[in-house]
Amino acid sequence: MERLQKVIAHAGVASRRKAEELIGQGRVKVNGKVVRELGTKVGPNDKIEVDEVPVESEAPVYFMLYKPRGVISAANDDKGRKTVVDFFPHVEERIYPIGRLDYDTSGLLLLTNDGEFANQLMHPKFEVDKVYVAKIKGIPSREKIRQLQRGVMLEDGKTAPARAKVLSIDKSKQTAIVELTIHEGKNRQVRRMFDAIGHSVLKLKRERYGPLDLRGLNAGEARELTAHEVKQLYSMSQTGK
C-alpha cells in the first residue's frame, strides 16, 4: 500500500505537491469515490481517477537530453513550436522536463515521468549544482566576478552565493567566456545575473547537472540515465552534496 499522492506522482500525472493539491480540490477519485484525505493509502487493485481520467501506473523512466537552442522546455506548446519531448518519439511514457532551459539556451536537461523525483530535484532547499558556460558581452573585472560569487540582487531577491570564473577573453571582440555554477532555479537566472553586473549574455549552455555532463552527446541527442545516476541525483537532492 502506498500514499495516494505518491502513486499519482509516480504515474507521471503531476508532482507529489501538485497531486496533493488535486486531492484537496476534490479532483481525485478512488474506486469511484472522491478522496480528500492526503494520508489515504491505495493498493495495486484500486481504481484511481484524476478529473475523471483513469491513472495508469507507469514504470518510472529517466532521460538526459542535450537540448538545442530554439526548442521549448515543455511537454507541449500551444503555438506549435518544437518541444523537448519531441526528441523522444519512441518513449510511450508521459515524460516532461525537470525545470527548464530558455528557448535560446542549450545544454543538459533531464526528463522523467516520476513526479516525486522531479519535485525532489527542484526543491528550493536542496537543489543540485548546475554548471553553465556563458559567452558575454564585454570583459568582466575581478570585482564583477566577485559580485556573482557573493550573490547579486534581482527583482525577485538576492541570488545565493555562486562559483564563477573566467575561462577566456577576446579583447578584439570584447567578449568573454565565463563558467557559472548555481544551485537555484529562478526564471532566466543566469542571464539576469549577468545583466545585473552589466554584461549581457550572447550565448548560454548548461554543461553539467549534478554528477551528469554532456559527454558522448551531440545537440538533439538523448540517453537514458543509469540506475546509479538516478540514485546519485536522489542522494544529492536530499543532502546537498
From TrEMBL:
Q: What GO molecular function terms would the record report?
A: RNA binding; rRNA pseudouridine synthase activity
Q: Name one Pfam family in it.
A: PseudoU_synth_2
Annotated RNA-binding S4 domain ranges read 2-59
Which Gene Ontology cellular component annotation is one that this UniProt entry carries?
A: cytosol
Key word Cytoplasm present: no
Q: Which domain of life is it from?
A: Bacteria
EC assignment: 5.4.99.-
GO biological process: what's one of them? enzyme-directed rRNA pseudouridine synthesis
According to the UniProt record, what class of enzyme is this? isomerase
Which keywords describe this protein according to UniProt?
A: Isomerase, RNA-binding
Q: Which family does it belong to?
A: Belongs to the pseudouridine synthase RsuA family.
What is the protein named?
Pseudouridine synthase
